[in-house]
Write a structure and sequence with these properties.
236 residues; alpha/beta; 6-stranded parallel β-sheet; Sec-Metab_Biosynth_Hydrolase; Pimeloyl-ACP methyl ester carboxylesterase
């Protein structure tokens, strides 16, 4: 099966490096994406909008022969919002979407409009900005490694508004890998009407898997993350 890996804010395709081997060894074809404007710290991202990242994923989906089967989208953090919009554009081409410490972003909502921007981009904030739950298992060495590799995200991606139009997106099977917050908590918040989870509540076929760690399981528990992804989609 074709697996398209979509990174979250501040990350490029290499952020999946420790997860990919398990997927490849199981016989799948993995494609870890580096989205527009995230090619390097010096890349020009001043004009990059959320739609550009969505279009980049759709272009990858379209590059595969439909006769070869549907694709699986895996989105981490803000990459989950991008995956959801790509499904909205190509609902008949996606077999399953896997949200890694993420969930689908509803129409008219932004990935994160609160992050501080500098010169048209959003740098990785100081660790003190994040909640304690985000940083579980991200020790000093891992924090240094993440900060070294971090690439500022386009402000147009972080603050851009999601655009959705095809309700067939609700029929695509989904897996939510709950990391910093448990699946039980997510379900309780949905029942309470949490606005950020309203789109997730509309999905018709959702599996929940708990992988207790912080917001970056691809760095803190990569082997376990690979196994959970495999369990969600089965053997090639």
């Amino acid at each position: 099966m074709i697996i398209v890996l979509i990174p979250g804010l501040w990350l490029d395709g290499s952020s999946w490096d420790e997860v990919v081997p398990a997927l490849d060894q199981a016989g799948h074809r993995t494609h870890a994406l580096t989205l527009p404007g995230m090619e390097s710290k010096d890349a020009d991202r001043s004009e990059i909008a959320l739609r550009h990242h969505v279009d980049a994923v759709v272009e990858v989906i379209d590059s595969f022969d439909p006769a070869g089967g549907k694709v699986v989208l895996v989105g981490h953090s803000g990459g989950g919002a991008i995956a959801h919009a790509a499904i909205d554009a190509r609902p008949d081409r996606v077999a399953r979407v896997i949200y890694v410490d993420s969930w689908p972003l509803g129409d008219g909502r932004a990935i994160n409009g609160q992050l501080a921007a500098e010169n048209g981009e959003v740098p990785l904030p100081d660790w003190s900005v994040f909640d304690e739950e985000d940083l579980v298992d991200l020790d000093g060495e891992r924090r240094a490694a993440v900060r070294k590799r971090a690439i500022p995200s386009p402000v147009g991606v972080a603050r851009g508004l999601q655009q959705l139009s095809d309700e067939r997106r609700y029929d695509v099977p989904a897996t939510v890998i709950a990391c910093e917050f448990s699946s039980t908590m997510l379900k309780q918040w949905m029942e309470q009407g949490e606005p950020n989870l309203q789109e997730l509540a509309k999905l018709r076929d959702v599996d929940y898997v708990d992988l207790p760690t912080g917001h970056w399981p691809q760095f803190t528990r990569p082997k376990e993350l690979g196994r959970v992804i495999l369990a969600s989609i089965g053997a090639a």
